[in-house]
Amino acid sequence: MAKRPDLTNQQKKIVSRYYEHRDTISATKLSELVGELYLCAGDEKKSARLWKQAATALKNLGVKETEADRIVTTRDLKALALQAGKGA
Question: What number of CA atoms fall less than 13 Å from residue 27's CA on the CB side?
């Protein structure tokens, strides 16, 4: 983390812990998105927004770009759930 004189020691520790656990946070977010996508099966507008968020979560989790693109374009919920399980 870059030196930030504007942050207190406590704030620096919070930011540091966030970056330490970023992969876990991304995996948890992806798991939540899987559930939301399953529940919004009929709402195309909400589904499109959630798939966009899933693409970002896959990128943050470090999934290969080709694999992430395949999952999002085919809207493969099962493969998305498998990626969420791998990240946890």
Answer: 12
